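Researcher: I'd like a structural prediction for the single chain below. Treat it as a standalone chain; there are no partners to consider.
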Amino acid sequence: MAFAVLLGKERDMSPSASGRKDRMIQQKRHDVYKETDKWPEPTVCQECGALFTDGRWSWKEPPKGAHEVTCPACKRMNDRYPAGYLEMRGKFLESHRQEIFNLMRNIEEQEKGERPLERIMEAKEEKDHTLVTTTGVHLARRMGEALSRAYKGELSFQYVEAEKLIRVYWER
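Model: Treating it as a single chain, here is the predicted structure.
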């Protein structure tokens, strides 16, 4: 316990005794692409045609006169700012590339049907690995889990606490 001499008196200076409320506040995850206000309904994305109605995005046909915006997924794609990264490595990838990419596209189609904001942004082949970027965290994780189930290998993932972001690593 810390004490200080104040005008000849000892005083308890511990945070609980002083009643200080200015301790560091832990910030929650922050997603710059998440709207803080509710979209007016119905709202349609002017780029991809996704419709916001009943509190969620879907692929329904937009009614005439719907409010037009650019959805968060299209904004991420335009800004080239992924929410998910899937890094794939290994000799197995090299010899089964087409089969693995077909699996990735199938997973994307399934996920996009349920969550229109989850899309593959880009698949880029680097010297020693292939990097797939996505507009959402669900798709990247689901693709990594599908790879692990179908082909085994080593799977790991990391969520970045400061923002809504996931990095998934698969190797075989």
